[in-house]
Structure prediction request, 374 residues.
Amino acid sequence: MAAAAEEHGAGLKSPNDALNVMDFEEISRKVLPPAHYGYLATGVDDDTTLHANREGYKRIQLRPKRMVDVSGRADCSVELFGKKWETPVALCPVGSQNAFHPEGELAVARAAGAKKTLQILSTMTTQPIEKVAEAAGPIWYQLYATSRWDVAEKLVRHADRAGCPVLVLTVDLPVGRNTETLERMKRTDTRNCATCHPPGGNFYGRKRMFEGIDMKGVTTYQPAMTWDLVRRIKDLTGMKLVLKGIETREDAVACCEHGVEGIIVSNHGGRAEESGRGTIECLPEVLDGVAGRIPVMVDGGIRRGTDIFKALALGARAVGVGRPYIWGLSAFGQAGVERVLEILRVELELVMRQCGARSIEEIRPSMVRSDLKT
Prediction:
């Protein structure tokens, strides 16, 4: 099958032609239908938080360290819950990936496996969790708790049976959201949306994780989510529990008090609430609340190896990327995802050596200057 980028004459003839991950965004915009690209590109309200995610990194400066022997390759590997990964970059959960490429999550899984990269699979996967895990190796499973406990229980048990070592509970979408950019782009889409979204149809019927589950009256959102849900999940499974969507010191402290084993500082890529704060701006206070007790990751706005380095220097254990690898998937399938991961690794290794860090463990807060306060 020819790559979508080549079929549409979108500029790059090969993923190797890309100089940075943003090169894939232009292709993604050209090859995807407006509604699909809008789903990927949207924030909420004025997209202020979406842009804040990116802008936050521009206010952090590097402090290069000289006279260090960096003649060898930098060791970019990192350990998370006893598993070693080649880089500190995780592929964030993105739903409905068949909308971006016919092989969807399977193409991503093969890329993750080839690059020894952590993949976090969305509840809204369009490919079976077992096939994704087989292609990628150990994957983490992201959970939308839904509005009914029996549904959440079935999803957790399914992920457990599939061998997922870590459950990532998304907590930043307890209610709906105002995705204006998506809605505006949908209005320019001339396709018959009823083909994929029939009026009154079963939205969940097309999502693999909900097969065989009665979804009548169920919504993805859980407005009644409390710390009791964390307790019930921990009583249900031996998987490590990570909360995705924590942005404040107070919630970070509460995570530790309720036995949560990891945190992903996230605002859903600027797609949850319009807080106006980038996740890198939230990271210091979350780390302050955790006080080293559990690992903290961060996602949102990461486009360069320097961004990864800055997040690690501030104290993150690892980072997550979402849109960049979906841009690569849209354009070139598995090869596009692999190229995105390759670019980020090369950029990260370069800045590590420039700052005198020969391994992730050698990255220090003194290697950056930031006006971010805890």
